[in-house]
C-alpha cells in the first residue's frame, strides 16, 4: 500500500470534478489530465483487492477523492446493513476522501434489494426515520455525510412535506450536509410540476457542500435521470442560478451509461468551471 | 395511510412480483401517467440494472443463449434469487444453479459450469491481493517435516471442475475469436485454476492429480495427505514439479 504522505490533499476544491468510471482509469493514469477532483461509487471498491484498488490508489495520489454511495439506501425501513457500513468505513480509512455522500431514498424491503434510488413519502414518520439513520451512519463512520436529493417518477398521496423542506429539515435535524443534484431538481420539477427555482431557494446555502450535474432522457412521458447524456441547457441555467445563490461549490459531472470518451467529460467539467469562475469574478 | 414499512413492502412487491395491490391507491396519478405506469418506470430501471449486471458478469453465457433468452432468464432469476445486498457486485452468483434447474435451459447441460466459471472469474477479479510465498522460509523446512505442511492458496484463486470442455467453450466464445467454433461436448471435462496474480484473471488447466492436490490443500489438508489422495487420481503425478509450478507461480502464497 502506498504511504499516505505521497497523496494529494483530501479537501475537495470548489471546482469541477468528474465521476471516475472504469473505462477512463487507464487513460487518466497515463495522461494525467488536469482534473480538479474525482468521485467514485463507494460500492465499486467494496472488493478486497485487484485492479480497481490499484487504479484508485494511483489516481488518489494526484487527486482529491469523494466517495459517493449508491447502495446504503438510508431510508429503508429494514434494519441497517452493518456489513455495508463497515465496508464503507474501511474505504474511508484507506482513501481519506474529502467528502462522503449517500442518497435521500430507500432501496430494500423484506430482505430483497431493488438496487435503485427509490422515492420516500415525505411524512413526519419518514423524516424521523431518515434522521435517525443518518445519525447512526455518521456515528458509525465517525464523520459527517452529505445527503443527495434524487430524481423521482412518482409522488405518494400521503406526503405532507414538500421535498425541499424535507431535505432542509433532514440536514438541520441530523447535522448532515447536502449534496444538491441540480439535474435531479430539474427532472423532478418537470415530472411533478413544481418550480425548480423555489426548490433551490428553500435549500439552506450553508449546508450545501457539493453539487451534481448530469444528463436525463426526455424520450418518454416523464424525464428519466439516466446519467447518459450531456447536461441540458435548462439544467445549466439552473446551475448558474444555484452558484449565484450558493457561491462556488465543488461540482461533479456524472456520466454512468453510454459513457463517452474522457475528453467529452472533461469538456463538460470545463463548462462548469467557467460558470464557477464567472461567479468568483463577480463576487470579487 | 400506510406506515413506512408497509409502503416499502408493497412497493417492492409491485416492482419485483408485479403485485400492485394497495400501492396504486397510495400513488398520485396524472392524466399522462397513472400509478401503474409510474411503477413500471421503476420496474424498468430496477430490472435494467439487474440485467446489465448479469450481462457484464456472464458474457459467454449471454453469447451461448442469445440476448432475448438471457434477458428472460435474468427476469425469472431475480424472482427466484433476489438481490440480497445493496452492492450490485454481490448479485448474480447463483445464475449457474438457476440455469440448471430452469426448464427452458435445463437441457443445456454445460451451461451451469460455464456460468460457474464466469462467476469464479468475477469474484477472483475483486478478491484480495497477496504477497508471494516466503521461498527462503520454505527452503529452510527440513525434508522430514515437508509432508506436514499446510498451504494457503492465493485469495484470488478459484477451482472450477466440470465434466464438460468449459475451457474450449469459453475460448471459442471470446470476442475476436475467429477459429473453428465446433465444440465436442463429449471431448472430456476441464479442471481449471482461475487465478488473478496481478490485475488480470487467468485460466490454467489442471491435471487430475493437480486438481485433487490443490482442492485438498485449499480444504486445509496437509501436503502429505493431499499427495496420497492426488496419487489415487493420477499415479504418475510428479509432486515436486507440481509444487514448484504453484509455489513459483504464486498459486500457493503461505504455509504453516
Question: How would you portray this structure in words?
Answer:
The complex is a heterodimer of chains A (284) and B (256). By secondary structure, chain A is α/β, with parallel strands linked by helices. Chain A has an 8-stranded parallel beta barrel, surrounded by 4 helices. A two-stranded antiparallel sheet of chain A has the order 5-6. The N and C termini of chain A lie far apart (43 Å). Chain A has a single domain, classed as TIM Barrel (Alpha-Beta Barrel), CATH 3.20.20.150. In chain A, helix 1 packs across helix 2 (51-62), helix 4 packs across helix 5 and helix 7 (196-202) runs parallel beside helix 8. Chain A has 9 helices and 10 strands. Chain A is 42% helix and 16% strand. The longest helix of chain A is centred in the last third of the chain and has 22 residues, at 262-283. With 256 residues, chain B is mainly alpha-helical. Chain B folds into 2 domains: 1-108, no CATH class; 127-256, Outer Surface Protein A, domain 3 (Alpha-Beta Complex), CATH 3.90.930. Chain B is built from 13 helices and 5 strands. In chain B, strand 3 and strand 4 form a beta hairpin. In chain B, helix 3 (35-57) packs across helix 5 (67-80) and helix 4 (59-65) runs antiparallel to helix 8. The longest helix of chain B is centred in the first third of the chain and has 23 residues, at 35-57. The mean pLDDT of chain B is 96. The chains are: A alpha/beta (284), B mainly alpha (256). The interface between A and B is large, with 48 and 47 residues.
